[in-house]
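Quick start: read one record
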Amino acid sequence: MKKRCPWCLNDPIYIDYHDREWGVPVRDERTLFEFLILEGAQAGLSWLTILRRREAYRQAYNGFDPRQVADYDEQRTAVLLNNSGIIRNRRKIEASINNAGRFLEVQKEFGSFSQYIWKFVDDRPVQNHWRRLSDIPVTSPQAMALSKDLRRRGFAFVGPTIMYSHMQATGMVNDHLVDCFRYSQLREG
C-alpha cells in the first residue's frame, strides 16, 4: 500500500486529488485561473467541500475561461447566486468575476499569468521537507508577497493563507510529507 499524506486518507475524491494533482507544477493559464477561483471559494470551508463541487464550478464558470468570466454582469451574478452546485456567497462570486478581469490584466502585463505567479518562487517549485502534517505552515514569505502584490493589483479573496493553498495546489511548493510516495516523484520530476 502506498504511503500518502494523512490529510487525504478519508475520501476517494481526496485520494485521487492527492495522487494526481496536488503539488504538480501547473503552468496552464486556465488551470491557474481555476485554482484561483476555487481557492477563493474555499475560504472558511474545507477543500473537500470545494472538490465535491468542482464540476459544478466548471459548468457555472464556462470551463474557467477568464475572458468569459470577466464579462459576467449582474444577471449572470444572479444566476450564480441561484446555482446550488457552487458556494453561493455574493462576496466570493463578485470577487471571482473581479479577479477574472485582474487576471487578464496580469496576462497582458507579463505575457501570461504563469510567468507572473511563478516569479514568486524563482520559477521553480520550493521543495519542502516536512515530516508531520503539523509541520506544514499555513503561509510562507512567498505567499505573503504574492498576496500583497495581488491585492495591490485589485484582486480579492487572495490572502496569504489562500495564496499558500494555491501554491500548494499548483505545485509552486512541494508540501507532500517526506514519507509520502508523491514527495520523491515531484521532487525528481
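Residues 81 and 109 are 32 Å apart (CA to CA).
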